[in-house]
Amino acid sequence: MHWRIRRLVSHSLLPFVLFFLTVGGLESVPAGADVQEDNGQVNINPDPTFNNTIPELPITAIIFSGVPGPYKCRGRIVMSVEIPPPVPAGGPTTARCYNFAHPVGCGNFVASKEAGCEAKLFAEPDCKMYLNTAVFIPEDRAVGGLWRSMEIKCGIPPPDPHSLGAPPLQGLLRGGQMGMG
Asked: Which residues form the signal peptide (predicted)?
């Protein structure tokens, strides 16, 4: 008997709960947004006076003696480098080589994408025997490996998307489904 009452109550309340959730969702338009008309489509136009600039991040490379952990680098800090931002439209900066007394295993390379910085990692001192390239990104993410020197360069322009070519699976996708041939 109790399960019938519970089923009746849950089925009769379900439309009301969904209605209140839908009404609550309609009021969650971002502050300053301009909703021009209700035509069944969602068009949210942000406030044109909103300052959309991202704060400039300092260009930093922090190198650790240990290896990457689940989220952060382990070990002690071996070197912390802060690089001045490149001159806008001045082209790439001159690459500078940094040597380490002992092999290092992890680093954090943080900068805004607009800075266009990269660190080439080398197995030998004096930036010899190339291993990998770490691109500076606007988040604190560990880059692992085992290197003895690194070369940092900034002001590198982003690649032209058209020069990268088409995505490798572009021809296989048809109408949202994979097609073979």
From this structure: 1-28
Which amino acid, 108? Answer: N
Domain borders along the chain are 59-153
Question: Is the pLDDT score of 168 beyond 90?
Answer: no
Residues 111 and 117: beta-carbon distance below 8 Å: yes
* C-alpha to C-alpha distance for 53 and 172, rounded to whole angstroms: 38
* Structural domain 59-153, CATH architecture: Sandwich (2.60)
Cα–Cα dist 121/59, whole Å: 17
The pTM for the full model equals 0.61
Q: Give pLDDT, residue 14.
A: 54
**Looking at residue 142, what is its pLDDT?**
93
